[in-house]
Structures are given as C-alpha cells and as structure tokens.
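Hi L.,

You mentioned the student needs an example of a multi-chain input paired with its predicted structure. This one should do, with 254 residues in total across all chains.
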Amino acid sequence: MKLDPSIREAMLAATPNLRAFAISLSRNVDRADDLVQETLLRALANIDSFQPGTNMSAWLFTILRNHFRSEYRKRRREVEDADGSYTASLTSQPEQTGKIEHEELRVALAKLPADQCEALLLVGASGFSYEEAAQICGCAVGTVKSRVNRARNRLAELMAIESPDDFGPDRETQAVLAANERR
Amino acid sequence: MQSEKTADKAEASMKSSSGSARLGRDVQHKIGQQLRAMYDDVIKEGVPDRFRDMLRQLDNPDDGSSEGSRG
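Structure written out for the whole complex:
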C-alpha cells in the first residue's frame, strides 16, 4: 500500500488531539491507545472514502467515536453493569499520565451521560465547531449545543465552580444587608 | 429535525427547573480552561512512536526488518 505522504502527515498531525480525546473518553491510556491504533487502521483501510481537502481530523474523530461507542456497548453487556459497579471502577481507576490536578475534572466528566461528555470534549477541548461536532456525532447542531450546555451546567455543579473571586454575589448581598441596617 | 429540537428544549427546561440553566461566561471560561489544560498534558507527549512506526510500516512493508541486512 502506497500512502500519499500528505495523508500520512495529516493523520500524524491529528493523532495527539485524537489521543487526548480517546483518553478522556475511555479514562485509560492503554485502552485509549488501542482505540487510536484501531482508528488509524480503519482509516487506512477506508482511505478511499476520505475526500482529499476535507477535514482529516473530523474524519478520524468520527471513526474513533463510533468505534468507542460500539466497544462500550459491548463491554457493558458483557459485564452486566446493573449496579453501576463497572462504571464506578472506571471512575476510580487511576489515570496513568493524568496529573492530580485534572483528577477532579476526570471524575466529574465520568459522571456525565456519554452524549454530553463527548459533545463537551469535542467543542470545549478538541476545538471543533458545533457544526463539526454535530457531523462527528451524527446529530443536529442544536442537539450538540444543548448537550454542551447541559454538560457545562452539570460540571459546574459537580466541581462547585462559581463566580470568579468568590465574592461576587456575597458582596452584593452584604451591600444590601448593610443598606438595610442603615435604615 | 424539528422534533429533535423540541425534545431538547423540553429536556433543557426540565433541567432548568432543577437549577441553573445558563452559566456565566466566567464559569464557561473556567471549564474550558480546565478541559484544555487536561488535553494539553496529553498533546505535549506528541505522537507516540507506536503510531509513527505503524504508519511507516504499513506504507512500506519491507522497511524495518531489513534495516540491519543492508550493505
């Protein structure tokens, strides 16, 4: 097989970002690397269906995402995760390359529904537009927007992210209280 | 498409009744920053040799094993 060098370069260029997505989805570096490898192999096997000039990155993400989805469903069925213990074990699995400061974020991401998690990762971290993310997930742009929105809300709740400097509302409340006292 | 939109709206309004429907820009910004910081740690690692080698070998099946036999 002779591969167009520009295609190989485009694949390599997309790989680090693809890998970051895979690690965030699977929460396991070894599994993520297997996902990336399988994605690249599938992409090569179907390279004829790739239209030169279109977005290689989005194409690879689509393959990886679909592969992850079907693997995940298969595993869930195998493990019969009725009580959620498998999901819980994934959540608590230590991240090999992950830094401790991202642990809170990873745990919070693991609690999101898969649809919302992938939408948020694609738009918020991978840098895709809503339109590209919709294409990757095979859904409407409006659906992606609302998933991202819900994911952000839930993350903010889970991680207790509040207004910057943490004195915004409090200061206002204090001002009102102070004003009332003066009366 | 229309029905999907309304379904999402219904879902969104259900959510909003339980709390914040809209986040401030600062909170969105913080979440985005943290997500990208998490990604950056992986991206900094670049392309693992495993993938580079795989693409090269697939492209050039004779490569690799014949390296030492030359000359």
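You could point out the following to them. The interface with chain A takes residues 1, 4-5, 8-9, 11-12, 15, 19-21, 23-24, 26-28, 30-32, 34-39, 41-43, 45-48, 50-52, 54-55, 58-59, 61 of chain B (CB under 8 Å). The mean pLDDT of chain B is 70.

Best wishes,
N.
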